[in-house]
Amino acid sequence: MSNMFQISSLPEERIVELAVLKKQCEIEMGWDPPQNYLDEWVKAVLGIRQQDLNLVKVAIVDGKVAGCCILVKQLHNYEGVVMDITWNSTYIWDLFVSKEQRNRGIGTKLLNDAIEYSKLIGCDKTGLLVKYQNERAKRLFEKAGFKLFSHYLIRRL
Asked: How much is the pLDDT for 153?
């Protein structure tokens, strides 16, 4: 396994590979997403990519997609969160790294690139959601300077 990785915009022809990785990462978190969810996720990712190639970045290790960060900058409603463009902000919609490639700085690099791109396009803040039980991700985001802003509560019916 190589110690090197490369960050680049998502080539459209790698979207299926990325969707497979997304599914693997969701399963690791305890949820097996149905195919219709993954199909809609792919459509959304391609739509975001079409707005600006710099919004969807992937990490490549040994020729394979090993991680991804998806940034949005316009009014969106993802997973119940509306990021209003009047906030002059971006939103990190998704960030994940394959289990085999974790603890190598890939997630940190993807996150830092998203933050820097947000600054470059004139935004003064970026937001994200993280599952309460995802301690690894919370540590990553807190280390990068993210602070708790609100609580997003769900009641199962």
From this structure: 79
Residue 5 structure tokens: 């990785």
| Beta carbons of 95 and 111 less than 8 angstroms apart | yes
CA separation for the pair 114, 89 (Å, rounded): 12
Q: Residues 89-147: pLDDT tens digits? A: 898 999 999 999 999 999 999 999 999 999 999 999 999 989 888 999 999 999 999 99
Enumerate the domain spans of the chain.
6-143
User: What is the dotted CATH code of the domain comprising 6-143?
Assistant: 3.40.630.30
Q: Tell me the H-state helices in the chain.
A: 15-28, 35-51, 106-120, 135-143
83: left (phi over 0), alpha (psi -120 to 50) or beta: beta
Element at 64 (helix H, strand E): strand 64-72
